[in-house]
Design brief:
There is one protein chain. The chain is mainly α. The protein is about 75% helix and about 0% strand. It has one domain: MFS general substrate transporter like domains (Growth Hormone, Chain: A), CATH 1.20.1250.20. The chain is globular, with a radius of gyration of 21 Å. The N terminus and C terminus are likely disordered.
């Protein structure tokens, strides 16, 4: 009854009832929505934010190949890559909190330059074949200094769209665009590393990553929107919608729904980490280790295509319903990987399987955005991203050893089990009785 009353108060949930939104029915309307969103942020911001987040994908996936190449051990590569990801997970929420308090400009600029130096030192350590404990420390520093451009770009773009009077459909479009850029970065990042490995050595890609984060990370920090976003967060009422928590209330404990979403994202991260280890192990087993990055790219292309189309979903298809469908699809479509034993089969299965990642990430970030107070949006987004990366971090070490001991199928099986747990988390999750305005409305569309 409360959900129905909220729907009645907010007006018709189906945007087709609104003449101004009839354009969203078809592909031209979808393209127009993307055009409007980019008009709010400027065309340059998505470009530099994409190039600035590309190094993250390069060093996360490339660490396994780089250290495996220099040490001769897949397990060592997995452990070091795990350390890098754990560094990012540990510092990610702190970077977001600093950005909320001090502004993105100074925080992102400092971390971008620091990360460029850390990546260079880490790469040099791997090339010198330093002892594993030393590589672990260098990897932690490289991960901890990541400026978090992906989640901070979401935290920057969403308030800009809301300040301009954008509705929930436009916010969903922002999140779809950002997740698509994430997916494209995880297409091109591993692909660049794979091409570098085939051409000579994975370290070439790490040199490019250090240069990109220094130049494009600084460009993202210094973009004019880095200043305007703080003013937007301090005035949530300008959107014409019910204001969320502000002032001192903005520092209170976040809704339980946000924590539940993070748990689900952890297991989606486990799925991706297990798949990455399985792909690396299977391509090595088949005698084509350089193909690992390209296989990963095939998975990311499908995810990016699906991510772009997510903005066309009707608003009556509620976020919790989307979350359950996405996690169920992940559990089902990951199963064929367990029995894949050829390069052709791997490409085919992974390409289809790639369709599940963007819906899971877009929905997770959307639920986070709808529940977080504006003053903690950067922290909430970076925490959600860290939950996803944290699942990958733990899995990289475990799945690498599983693959070495029992074969690639064992790593893929671990991923399938994690996807099943993510589905159970989504299945039992319930919207809060009192929370973010959009989560409450979506309860009627479960």
């Amino acid at each position: 009854m409360a959900a129905k009353a909220q729907v009645a108060q907010d007006g018709p949930r189906d945007d087709r009832d609104n003449p101004e939104n009839r354009e969203y029915r078809g592909a031209p309307g979808l393209l127009e929505t993307y055009r409007e969103v980019i008009g709010h942020t400027g065309a340059l911001l998505p470009v530099i934010s994409f190039l600035g987040r590309l190094p993250v994908a390069m060093i996360q996936f490339g660490s396994v190949l780089l250290v495996t190449e220099t040490s001769g051990s897949l397990a060592t590569g997995g452990v070091v890559a795990c350390a890098l990801a754990l560094g990012q997970v540990t510092m990610g929420p702190l970077v977001g909190r600093l950005a909320d308090r001090l502004g993105q400009r100074s925080v992102v600029l400092a971390f971008s330059l620091l990360n460029a130096v850390a990546i260079a030192v880490y790469t040099l350590g791997a090339l010198l074949d330093l002892p594993t404990p030393v590589l672990v420390v260098l990897a932690v520093l490289a991960g901890a200094s990541i400026p978090g451009i992906g989640p901070l770009a979401r935290a920057r773009a969403v308030p800009l769209v809301r300040r301009a009077g954008g509705d929930s459909r436009q916010v969903n479009t922002v999140l779809s665009l950002e997740s698509t850029m994430d997916e494209l970065s995880f297409v091109l990042g591993p692909a660049f590393v794979g091409l570098a490995a085939v051409a000579g050595h994975p370290a070439y890609a790490f040199g490019a990553a250090a240069l990109l984060v220094a130049v494009c990370g600084s460009g993202f920090a210094l973009h004019p929107t880095g200043r305007t976003v703080r003013a937007t967060q301090e005035a949530p009422h300008v959107t014409g919608e019910a204001p969320r928590a502000r002032g001192d209330r903005g520092r209170r404990r976040l809704p339980r729904a946000v924590v539940v979403v993070r748990v689900g994202l952890v297991f989606v991260g486990v799925l991706l980490g297990a798949c990455g280890a399985g792909i690396t192990a299977l391509t090595e087993e088949l005698g084509q280790p350089g193909q690992a990055g390209l296989v990963y790219a095939a998975m990311g292309v499908m995810s990016a295509v699906v991510g772009l189309s997510m903005a066309a979903l009707p608003e009556r298809f509620g976020l919790y319903a989307r979350w359950r469908v996405a996690t169920a699809a992940a559990a089902l479509l990951s199963l064929p990987l367990v029995w894949t034993d050829s390069m052709t089969g791997l490409y085919l299965v992974v390409t289809v399987f790639g369709a599940i990642f963007a819906p899971n990430l877009i929905t997770g970030f959307a639920l986070t955005e709808r529940s977080c107070p504006p003053q903690r949006l950067a922290e909430g987004m970076t925490f959600a991203a860290s939950a996803f990366v944290g699942g990958q971090a733990v899995t990289l070490a475990v799945a690498g050893r599983l693959a070495e001991s029992y074969g690639p199928g064992a790593a893929f099986a671990l991923g399938s089990a994690a996807a099943a747990v993510a589905f159970l988390v989504a299945l039992v999750a319930r919207p809060p009785a009192e929370g973010g305005r959009e989560v409450t409305r979506d309860a009627a569309g479960r």
